[in-house]
Amino acid sequence: MAEGRVIPVEIGGQRYPIRSTLDPDYVARLAGYVDEKMRAAADSTPTGDSLRLAVLAALNIADELFRCRDQTRVRDGQLAERTEEIERLVDRVLMA
Q1: Of 2, 4, 31, 59, most Cβ neighbours within 10 A?
Q2: Domain boundaries defined on the chain
């Protein structure tokens, strides 16, 4: 397994060396997103506790992930229903 390179990022005013095989620009975008969520948590919660802000940011990110997964499941279900409907229509045409 490749070790990857160290990509320096900044989140919440702290620099972190991230070892990754991912594209450095992608890692920077991820870090920027987490930093944005940390700032949003800091704006909505008057606390200087960086651990508490990190937990709030993580919960917000997890909420977004779960909502996206739910939407994907709904879309997948709709797609499956439409596919079955098309199959039935094709079967009817071929039987005629």
Answers
A1: 31
A2: 5-95
